[in-house]
Specification:
The chain is mainly alpha-helical. About 45% of the residues lie in helices and about 5% in strands. The protein has 15 helices and seven strands. The strands form three sheets. The chain has a three-stranded antiparallel beta sheet with strand order 3-5-4. The protein has a two-stranded antiparallel sheet with strand order 1-2. A two-stranded antiparallel ribbon has the order 6-7. Helix 1 packs antiparallel against helix 3 (about 100-115). It is elongated, with a radius of gyration of 40 Å.
C-alpha cells in the first residue's frame, strides 16, 4: 500500500535512500526534507512546499551579508590603497600622475565592461586587452614623466581620498546592478546566478540522486530545492509533470533539461505556440497535452519524450530526434517531418493527422512533398501510422558499384538465417550504386542487420576477387611454362601452331560467322610479347567508335567521345599489362556496339558486364594511376548515357 504523507509537516525529515514509489506528498510541507538517493517513481508532490527551513534561511542571510561586506570592503580597500599609492607625493614626484589616472580609467573600464558584457569569457578578454594597454601606457608615461611631478604632491592626497571614495561608491553600485541582473535572469550573469542558486539551496529540500520517474510536481513550490546529481547516483527526471510549478527557476537543476529557460517555461506553462525551440533538449520530457502548434523544433532532441495528445499541428520538426517518443493521440496535421528521426520504439498510435510535408521549403517545382501526394486526398484514421510504419520496419543498405551476384546471395542467406522473417522489399538503382530495402520484424536491431549484411557481403566479395586474381595468376604461370617448354624443345614448331581464341561480341548478335576469331602466328617471336594483337584490337575499337559517331542521336556523339577518351587512357596506362589492355579494349568495343543499338536489351546487359570487367581490371591498379582517375570520371558518364 502506498505511503500517504499528504498535508503533513515533514520539515527536516530524512527519507534518504528509501523506496517511496507512488507515495503521496501532496500539499505536504517538505522544506529541508532529505530525499537523497530515494526511489520516488510516480510520487505525488502536487502543491507541496519545498525549500529551506527558517533557521537555514537565517543562516543564509547572515552568511550572504558577511560575504558581501567582506568582498565589498576588500574591493574598496584595495581600490583606496592603489589610488593613494599612485597619487602619493613619493610616486608623483618621480613618475608623475599617469599611473594613477590610468588606474582610475582602468577601474572605470572594468565596471563598464562588467555592466555591458556581464561575467562572461568575452568580458575577461576585453579586460585583458584593457589591462595590457594600461600597463604599456603607464610604463611609457612613467618613463617620460620621471621627475616631472616634483612639487605636485600638495594635491595628491586630496585626489587619492576623492578617488578612493568614488571607487567605493562605484563598487557598491556595481554590486547592486549585478544582483538586479541576476534576479532578472540575464544570461550574461549566469555564473553569478548559478553560484547564488547553489548557495540558496543549502539546507533546502534535497532530491539529489533520486529516481523521480513520472513524479508529479503540479503547483509545487520548489524554491531552493536541489535536483543536482548526488555523489553516488544521477538524478532521474524522466516524464515528470512540472505543470504550474512555482519558482522552479530558483531550484538547483544541474545540467538537466531544466537548465534551459525556454524548455523550463514550456514544461511549466504547457504553451509553446509559434515559439522557437531550435536544437532544444526535451529528452525524456513530459510534454503530454502541450500546445506546440506552429512551433519550430528544428534539430530538437525529443527522444523518449511523452507527447501524448500534444498539439503539433503545422510544427517544424526538420531533423528532430524522436527516437522512442510517444505520440499517441498527438495532432500532426500540416507538420513538416523533413529528415525527422524515428525508430521502432516511436509510438504513432491514433495520431490525428490529415496530411504532412516532407520538405520544409518548396523545391524548384514549388512542392513541399505533401503526403498524401494528391492535394485533394487526406489520411484516414490509422493511415499515418501505416505510412510511417514502413519506415520503422525497413532497413536500407547502399551497395556500391553494383551488385556482385555471389556476394549478394551469400549476404542474403546470412540475413535470412539470423532473421527468418526478413525479406527483400525493394531494389532501386541509383547511378552506379544499388539501394537495397529489407523488411524486418518490429523491434529488430537495424544496426545489427546492416552490420551482418555488410560483413557477409564484403567477406564474400573479397573472396571472389581473390579467386579471380589467383586464377589469372595460374593461367599466366601456365602460359609462361608452356612457352618455356616450347622454346627448349621446338620454339619454331610451337609458334607456327599457336592459336589465340578471343570471344567475339558478335555472338550476342547471332552472327552466322564463327563466334570466335583465330589468329595464327608463325616465324620468329614478336619482340613486343603479347602486344602482337593490340594493333588489331585498337583498330576494331576505333572503327566501332567511328560508326557510333555517324549516328544522328546526340547522346551517341557524346558516348563516342567518352569511349575514345577511355580507349586512349587504357593504351596510355603504363601500370596495365598488355593482356589486360587487350581485355579492356575488347570491353570498350562491346560498349560501343551496345551504344549503336540502345534498344537491344541483350547488348545492354553485355555492356553492363563490360563496365564491371573494366572496373575489375583497374581494381588492382594503384589509386594514383592515370587510368583509375580517368575511369572515375568516364564510367559514370557512360553508364548514365547508356541508361544502365
Amino acid at each position: 500500500m502506498p505511503s500517504d504523507f499528504s498535508g503533513q509537516n515533514l520539515r527536516g525529515r530524512s527519507f534518504k535512500g528509501q523506496d517511496l514509489s507512488i507515495a503521496d506528498f501532496s500539499g505536504a510541507d517538505i522544506r529541508g526534507a532529505n530525499f537523497t538517493n530515494a526511489t520516488l517513481k510516480e510520487a505525488n508532490f502536487a502543491k507541496a512546499k519545498a525549500g529551506v527551513q527558517r533557521r537555514w534561511l537565517i543562516i543564509q542571510l547572515v552568511l550572504s551579508f558577511v560575504f558581501s561586506v567582506v568582498l565589498n570592503f576588500a574591493s574598496v580597500l584595495l581600490n583606496a590603497y592603489f589610488t593613494a599609492y599612485f597619487f602619493s607625493e613619493a610616486w608623483t614626484k618621480d613618475y608623475g600622475y599617469s599611473a594613477g589616472i590610468l588606474l582610475l580609467l582602468l577601474t572605470a573600464t572594468t565596471f563598464f565592461v562588467i555592466a555591458r558584457q556581464g561575467l562572461t569569457t568575452k568580458a575577461v578578454g576585453t579586460l585583458a586587452i584593457a589591462i595590457a594597454i594600461a600597463v604599456a601606457v603607464a610604463v611609457a608615461g612613467a618613463v617620460a614623466g620621471a621627475g616631472a611631478g616634483a612639487g605636485a604632491g600638495a594635491g595628491a592626497g586630496a585626489g587619492a581620498v576623492a578617488g578612493a571614495g568614488a571607487g567605493a561608491v562605484a563598487v557598491l553600485l556595481l554590486t547592486f546592478y549585478i544582483a538586479w541582473r541576476v534576479r532578472k535572469g540575464d544570461d550574461k550573469f549566469a555564473l553569478a546566478r548559478s553560484f547564488g542558486i547553489a548557495f540558496g539551496a543549502l539546507g533546502g529540500t534535497s532530491f539529489c540522486g533520486a529516481d523521480l520517474t513520472k513524479a508529479n510536481f503540479t503547483g509545487a513550490m520548489l524554491k531552493s530545492s536541489n535536483f543536482h546529481d548526488s555523489k553516488k547516483k544521477p538524478t532521474i527526471l524522466t516524464h515528470i509533470c512540472w505543470n504550474d510549478a512555482k519558482h522552479l527557476d530558483r531550484a538547483r537543476v544541474g545540467d538537466s533539461i531544466l537548465s534551459n529557460a525556454a524548455v523550463r517555461e514550456l514544461l511549466i506553462t504547457r504553451i509553446g505556440y509559434k515559439k522557437p525551440y531550435v536544437r532544444a533538449n526535451f529528452r525524456d520530457a513530459n510534454l503530454s497535452g502541450v500546445n506546440l502548434n506552429e512551433a519550430i523544433l528544428n534539430g530538437a532532441d525529443l527522444s523518449g519524450a511523452n507527447l501524448q495528445r500534444a498539439d503539433l499541428r503545422e510544427e517544424i520538426l526538420t531533423e528532430a530526434l524522436l527516437v522512442g517518443a510517444d505520440l499517441t493521440g498527438a495532432a500532426l496535421t500540416g507538420a513538416c517531418l523533413q529528415d525527422w528521426n524515428i525508430d521502432s520504439h516511436t509510438t504513432l498510435t491514433d495520431v490525428d493527422c490529415q496530411y504532412v510535408f516532407l520538405l520544409e521549403k518548396p523545391n524548384k517545382f514549388g512542392s513541399r512533398d505533401r503526403r498524401p501526394h494528391d492535394p485533394n486526398k487526406l489520411f484516414q484514421p490509422g493511415d499515418f501510422e501505416k505510412f510511417f510504419k514502413e519506415v520503422l520496419d525497413t532497413v536500407q543498405i547502399l551497395i556500391r558499384d553494383g551488385i556482385n551476384p555471389e556476394a549478394f546471395k551469400t549476404a542474403l542467406q546470412t540475413i535470412q538465417e539470423k532473421y527468418p522473417d526478413a525479406a527483400i522489399k525493394g531494389i532501386e538503382k541509383q547511378d552506379q550504386d544499388v539501394l537495397l530495402t529489407l523488411q524486418v520484424p518490429d523491434g529488430t536491431d537495424k544496426g545489427e542487420v546492416e552490420q551482418n549484411w555488410e560483413a557477409s557481403y564484403q567477406t564474400r566479395l573479397a573472396a571472389v576477387k581473390n579467386a579471380a586474381l589467383l586464377e589469372a595468376e595460374q593461367r599466366h604461370s601456365q602460359d609462361l611454362k608452356a612457352i618455356t617448354l616450347a622454346t627448349v624443345s621446338n620454339l619454331g614448331t610451337f609458334l607456327s601452331n599457336l592459336t589465340i581464341n578471343t570471344i567475339a561480341e558478335s555472338k550476342s548478335m547471332n552472327d552466322s560467322t564463327d563466334s570466335s576469331r583465330n589468329l595464327t602466328v608463325g616465324g620468329n617471336l614478336n619482340t613486343t610479347g603479347s602486344t602482337f594483337n593490340l594493333g588489331e584490337i585498337n583498330g576494331n575499337v576505333t572503327n566501332t567508335i567511328n560508326q557510333l559517331q555517324t549516328s544522328d542521336r546526340p547522346e551517341a556523339t557524346q558516348l563516342a567521345d567518352l569511349l575514345k577518351q577511355l580507349q586512349d587512357a587504357i593504351n596510355a596506362e603504363p601500370a596495365l599489362q598488355p593482356d589486360d589492355k587487350t581485355e579492356a579494349l575488347e570491353q570498350v568495343s562491346t560498349i560501343a556496339k551496345a551504344a549503336q543499338t540502345p534498344q537491344d536489351s541483350t547488348l545492354k546487359k553485355l555492356a553492363n558486364t563490360s563496365i564491371k570487367v573494366i572496373k575489375g581490371t583497374i581494381a588492382v591498379l594503384p589509386s594514383t594511376a592515370t587510368l583509375v582517375k580517368a575511369c572515375s570520371e568516364l564510367l559514370p558518364a557512360i553508364v548514365h548515357l547508356l541508361g544502365l
